[in-house]
Design a protein that fits this description.
This protein is mainly β and 75 residues long. The strands form two sheets. Strands 1-2-3 form a three-stranded antiparallel sheet, with no helix packed on it. β4 and β5 form a beta hairpin. The radius of gyration is 12 Å and the shape is globular.
Length: 75
């Protein structure tokens, strides 16, 4: 969860990062299948740091994708 209580879930079968508000309401899906930045190929995990940056382990692309959304803290 981020500082606002939003919940981030990787959906590996469809290659998306899903975001839900604290009440469980769906907010957005990020990604889709692909190799270019912002796309995933079997995302396997998600982690949020103290600056609200969202790290997604993108297993078959062999990388960690990093996102920071508007409203996230810079420091």
């Amino acid at each position: 969860m981020d500082d606002e209580g939003n919940v981030y879930v990787v959906e590996s079968y469809y290659d998306h990062l899903l975001v839900f508000n604290p009440g469980g309401q769906f907010l957005m899906a990020i990604g889709g299948t692909g190799f270019e930045p912002g796309k995933f190929y079997l995302p396997a995990g998600v982690w949020i740091d103290s600056r609200n940056r969202v790290f997604v382990a993108d297993m078959f692309n062999g990388r960690i994708s990093v996102f920071q959304f508007l409203g996230g803290r810079d420091g």
